[in-house]
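During the reporting period, we have paired protein sequences with backbone structure tokens. One record among many follows, to show the layout:
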Amino acid sequence: ESDTASEISFQFNKHKKTPSVGSHSSDMASVSSVSGSVLSVYSGDFGSVDAQGTVEFALDYDEKNREFQVHVSQCKDLAVVDEKKGRSDPYVKTYLLPDKARMGKRKTSVKKRTVNPVYNEVLRYKIEKMVLLIQKLNLSVWHNDPLGRNSFLGEIEVDLASWDWSNRKLNWYPLKPRSLSAINGVDHRGVMNLSIKYVPPGSLGPRNPPSGEVHIWVKDVKDLLQLRPSGVDSFVKCYVLPDTSKKSYQKTRVIKRDINPVFNHTIVYDGFHTEDLKDACVELTVWDHEKLTNHFLGGIRLGLGTGLSYGISVDWMDSTQEEVAFWQEMMSATNEWIEGLLPLRSL
């Protein structure tokens, strides 16, 4: 039923796992850094102030250098965040939607104690024109908070496919409240079709299997983010956290030029004790493969979502209700394949 079967011996040891919680492999560190930038498109405080004021900017595409340029000039009449002190410390941030994970964010410097900041800065993206034309530009203004709880001051979204590229002049645009299309762009990353099964030790006969096994059958993924007109070259990575070592790491083959890839790949992890299922988390992430670097597209985490692993607080034990229910069904229906269709998300 699957074209690739891999079996990984995975011995849980509570004493060995404790230090690994805080020390990720280089591969895992890249997941964390990319995911952080994805989430930051809408991390912050939206309820404290109403969007108001205007922003002046211009757009240009440098054909010679294959570079998209956002000329951020200034803002006027922004909302006041700290009413007691009558101040805002604004900066401008841009994303290309829906491809935030790949392109990352760009932002200007912070201008302190002003609701009329002047920037005169250029935010640059190295990107092919054909790819740019299937994106939207999200430009937002934020108040910079020293404690990290930045406040949203307004935004504008530009459909680059219909933009007049002969217009290189600076123009004023009204700032608007948070847009629904941008929110949906963050949430919708595709859907993974998979099955999982737990085989307890000795459940198939005397000492068969000798230790518990978790079987993961990655079938296919639908509706991935289309990073290029030709589609994406995707593959799936798998870890059983808290172990991020090479022993835990597995991946599928790359499926080229397809936003609906069929993987049909099975992975078996042994070395499980039944009680380990409460503290472990299967992380499946989908990536776009390129020569120099891979780009995060979305993922799922299967576990109980308690925030704890072997008594230690960890940020990756954050499974959604759907993911938790899927994992619980596997735990209660041993030796049976549990099928699921789970939405990919930012991790």
